[in-house]
Amino acid sequence: MTCCVEPAPRPPSVRLSVTGAGSGGAGEAAGVSAGASAPDAILSNASAPDAAPDAAPDAAPDAAPDAAPNAALSDAGAPDAGPDAGPDAGPDAALSDADADAPDPLLTLTLPLRVTYADRLYSARGYSGEHITRPAAGVAVEVAPAGGGAPLAAGWTDERGEAALTLTAPAGAPLVARALSTLALGERVADVRAREEGAPLYGLESAPPPAAALAALAAPLALHAPDESPPAGALNILSATRLGLALIARHTPAPPALPLSYRWSPGLPFACGSCYAGGRVSLGGQVEDPDQYDDHIILHEMGHYFVDMWSLDTSPGGPHRGRPVPPPLAYGEGAAYFWCALALGDPLVVDWMDPAPWVVDLEAGALNGVITSYGVDPATGAHHEELVSSALWDAYDGGESDDDPIALGERHAMGALLTALPGRAVESGAPGVDLSDWLLAAACLAPDAAPALSALAAARGYAWSPSEPVSPLAGGAVGLSRCPGKGAPPLTLAPRAARGGGLWLDAPAGAPAPPSPLRVSLWQGVPPRLTPLKRALPCAALPCEVLSASALKEYEGSPLPLVARVAAPSAPPRAASWLSPAALAAVRGGGEGRRTRWGAAVVWAAEVGERR
To answer: 144: part of which helix (H) or strand (E)?
Structure first.
């Protein structure tokens, strides 16, 4: 639709870009996507629908380029009968043809924006049929020429979904404002795209009034995604994700190895329902079980991302809901459900679906309204994921309504996930990471809570004691105790010019040397993603060379650290899909200006809470 300067300008209409408004973050969108030009993709912010808002979108908008405000000026110099008759009624009122073709003057303006979306309301009984308007906080916004081209200004919305973009443009140039389905919180970013590879972002886009009309707006330009529209679903996914990013930011400054990206298309399913792998969440949009408004499910899948980037599990994946599964799978899924409840501050996990929602009450220990005693299969150790999620929630929460004797709080609950568990030195319970390992990690951080943790587990039919037998992890560093940081001293891994310039493993001066001989292997990468370089390196006694000077030169240009894995001869090897950081000597430092990060190395379990 066209627009002009009016005494009380109405906000431009909003175009809903069904297939996206750009291919990336703020500043990437160039022009209007095909989806935005569909007739039913344009919704007016006014209470009444637009009268053919773009029936003739470019109906000679510049047929008389300077017809306003001086359209009433004749070549003979007749006075202007329009709004500018006073100011222009001087000697220069007669405009030549050359003057008429002069470009519009540049206008610098600050455009306030407000981005909102319609969210569904639901409870344990499912969706209520009602919607509520919420701000789209932290999303990318930009202003660009309507005909295409690079954005003139870009930024991010604040907590209220508002932003103010300052730009310079010709006064008569038509501009569009956009909100895109990408989110930033510090160094952590996330986006939502359609499920096809290379799909653009979802977005909202305003109609193209000239810059002068935008400058005259008395209130922020409102970009609103209405009920059940694709941009509304995308913005709700990001709104839930922002809560998860804020939870992570409260407990670790470490950026993730991979950004988070959602693939979601309304009405279309994934074979897995909703699932996570390698920095990407595949979120189901099928009509009978849409997840774009299920905040707990969005954050459950993000919980797998959190564990992948900052914590540890050994879950093999596979079907898990409502059935006993192997302990590592139960822990991987249960920890993700606990994490989503922690991020939302709500232990009532609801997954809406037709004909009835799936509801797990972590506080009450109820599954679909039935109080459940999950228990453990004595023959296989298999148990429900809900046993894990409810145990972790009860260990965390407190307050007057809490019915258990322990309240670790957010700091210790996240600490067990972020530091104590990844830095574990021993195997507790079943092979792999399971509930027993988390309980031991929590007890290491809060020793006084160990008896209460044991009682909490026993109430669910899960036998665990802070003094139960444990075994060293495969390749475990020598002398490590039950809790990280209370065992072996750090080892060093550094080049030694005096010994020919190779890479040498040694014990620090004054530190007790571990028993010899040692089993040493060399890896490259950042745990738990490591690539083996050399296995079964001989080390009869410290110090010992793990790489010759000539071999070391091969890694000088690599940005990835070299990592030594050290084990005593008595530590039995055990197959595992993840390596314990407790068993590693990670190389750090600059290496005399080389890009390869070698220098001072430490055994990971030597210091509590530090993940290198």
So the answer is: strand 139-145
Q: How far apart are CA 227 and CA 234, in angstroms?
A: 12
Specify whether 53 is located in the same domain as 129. Answer: yes
Whether 254 and 123 share a structural domain: yes
The encoded tokens of residue 438 equal 């988390």
Q: How far apart are the first and last CA of the chain?
A: 56
566's CB contacts (< 8 A; 6+ apart) are 475, 477, 478, 491, 505, 514, 518, 519, 520, 583, 584, 585, 603
- Burial classification of residue 336, based on how many CB atoms lie within 10 Å of its CB (0-12 exposed, 13-18 middle, 19 or more buried): buried
β-pair type (280-282, 370-371): unpaired
Q: Specify whether 167 is located in the same domain as 265.
A: yes
pLDDT digits (tens, 9 = 90+) for 4-57: 323 333 344 444 543 334 334 443 432 233 333 332 333 333 333 333 334 333
For residue 592, give both structure tokens.
């005399």
58 and 197 share a domain? yes
pTM for this model (two decimals): 0.68
The model's pLDDT over 56-90, given as tens digits with 9 standing for 90+, comes to: 334 333 433 343 333 333 343 434 444 444 444 44
**Total number of domains constituting the chain:** 4
Which single residue is written with the structure tokens 């979306």?
117
